């Protein structure tokens, strides 16, 4: 009885504080039918239903990790437009930080990134099923930031433009060799061979990606130009004229970045060009973001995001000189909005396919990431580089070549 009274008092204080300071467009509904407005709105656009008393402690300190955990474990339900729900989640978290007198305590994470651990992590995330990803990705199955040249392209067009943007940036020429580290379902190497005439090797640790990419290469009649391998980047041998890494280094680990870029340098031919396309965080400190525990547990095991400053530092330490850096944060926010909308449009089929828990994980993950990129909580850069210390005779004097003169063979 004493515990219940103390909890009720704490809940009343929390509700009063939120109404006064946060003014959230939320109606709180408890398991016993009681309802409380958390803001001064006639018609709140989000209803937060607490399904059991055990969820209340998570709400009283509502970090993104706690809210995500409660939602995935079906301790709470959230009804309303997905964009409104995510906005409310961030505002809950901000209110909790204010009540705590600053940033909430964050737990340091330490990952070892052995080959087996990285393989397990990749397969956990990417081997949900190819059919699952096909429900919300573009037809080319490109699972990385698209490039919206005009801002109003459909997703498929923007993804094709992203791949062309990359291949034009690295100046891939006919019959040059290209290594794509983390090739996904093969979209980049397929385009590189078909349009630019490259001879490509794509590697992945995902069995599902390997199977489908191999089948797509065979169906396109490009087996003589493209080889798909189920292989760790640390086990590659040989040299390549061009190297791309798209959405891969997030799985490497911050302490391994210098070695990762050093490995890219070893694999890069003299006068070769490489490009790293990866997610970063705006905070240069090493502290994990709010929501990172949820991401590590449910979405990206062992995933780590560096600041762009650390990327450039470790790239140089690995023997690569950056000569072109482009921010694509707005482009990823737009990409994620497309993915989240597709996910919502196919929610019934996805629920049937993967079950309620995984459906909830991915629903909140996609929409939450869209908000994070919109608000500069997360960012993304493309960095084009070559071997440090090499003459720069092959590098154009201006960036105009990227936009004015596409060098592909076919559209």
Describe this structure in words.
GO terms for molecular function: methyltransferase activity. InterPro entries: CFA/CMAS, CMAS, DUF7884, SAM-dependent_MTases_sf. It comes from Cupriavidus yeoncheonensis. Residues 18-93 form the DUF7884 domain. Belongs to the CFA/CMAS family. By secondary structure, the protein is of the alpha/beta class. It has two domains: 2-99, SCP2 sterol-binding domain (Nonspecific Lipid-transfer Protein, Chain A, 2-Layer Sandwich), CATH 3.30.1050; 115-404, Vaccinia Virus protein VP39 (Rossmann fold). The chain is built from 16 helices and eleven strands. The protein has helices spanning 2-22, 56-60, 64-72, 82-99, 115-126, 130-134, 155-169, 187-196, 207-219, 257-267, 292-299, 308-317, 329-345, 347-354, 356-374, 400-404, and strands at residues 26-29, 35-37, 46-50, 76-80, 177-181, 199-204, 226-230, 240-246, 268-280, 320-327, 379-387. Strands 7-6-5-8-9-11-10 form a seven-stranded mixed beta sheet, sandwiched between helices. A four-stranded mixed beta sheet has the order 2-1-3-4. 41% of the residues are buried.
Task: Tag the structure with descriptive keywords.
2 domains, elongated, 411 residues, Rossmann fold, Nonspecific Lipid-transfer Protein, Chain A, 7-stranded mixed sheet, 4-stranded mixed sheet, 17% strand, 45% helix, alpha/beta
């Amino acid at each position: 009885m004493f515990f219940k009274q103390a909890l009720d008092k704490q809940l009343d204080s929390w509700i009063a504080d939120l109404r006064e300071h946060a003014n959230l467009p939320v109606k709180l509904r408890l398991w016993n039918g009681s309802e409380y407005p958390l803001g001064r709105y006639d018609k709140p656009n989000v209803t937060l239903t607490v399904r059991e008393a055990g969820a209340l402690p998570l709400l009283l300190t509502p970090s993104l990790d706690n809210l995500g955990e409660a939602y995935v474990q079906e301790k709470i339900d959230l009804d309303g437009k997905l964009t409104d729900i995510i906005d409310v989640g961030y505002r809950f978290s901000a209110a909790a930080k204010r009540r705590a007198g600053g940033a909430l305590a964050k737990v340091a994470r330490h990952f070892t990134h052995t080959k087996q651990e990285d393989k397990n992590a990749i397969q956990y995330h990417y081997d949900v099923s190819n059919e699952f990803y096909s429900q919300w990705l573009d037809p080319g199955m490109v699972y990385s930031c698209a490039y919206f040249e005009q801002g109003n392209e459909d997703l498929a067009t923007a993804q094709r433009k992203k791949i062309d943007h990359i291949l034009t940036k690295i100046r891939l020429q006919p019959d040059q060799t290209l290594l794509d580290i983390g090739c996904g379902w093969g979209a980049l190497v397929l385009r590189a061979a078909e349009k630019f005439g490259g001879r490509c090797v794509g590697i992945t640790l995902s069995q599902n990606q390997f199977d489908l990419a191999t089948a797509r290469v065979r169906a396109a009649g490009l087996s003589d130009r493209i080889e798909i391998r189920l292989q760790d980047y640390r086990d590659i041998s040989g040299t390549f004229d061009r190297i791309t890494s798209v959405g891969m280094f997030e799985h490497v680990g911050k302490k391994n970045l210098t070695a990762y870029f050093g490995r890219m340098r070893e694999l890069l031919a003299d006068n070769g060009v490489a490009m790293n396309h990866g997610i970063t965080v705006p905070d240069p400190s090493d502290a994990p973001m709010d929501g990172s525990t949820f991401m590590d547990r449910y979405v990206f095991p062992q995933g780590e995001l560096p600041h762009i400053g650390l990327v450039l530092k470790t790239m140089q330490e690995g023997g690569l000189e950056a000569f072109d850096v482009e921010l694509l944060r707005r482009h990823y926010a737009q990409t994620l909005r497309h993915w989240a909308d597709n996910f919502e449009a196919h929610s019934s089929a996805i629920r049937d396919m993967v079950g309620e828990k995984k459906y909830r994980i991915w629903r909140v993950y996609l929409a939450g990431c869209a908000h994070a990129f919109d608000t500069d909580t997360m960012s993304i850069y493309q960095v084009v580089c070559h071997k440090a210390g090499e003459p720069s005779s092959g590098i154009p004097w201006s960036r105009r070549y990227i936009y004015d003169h596409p060098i592909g063979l076919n559209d």
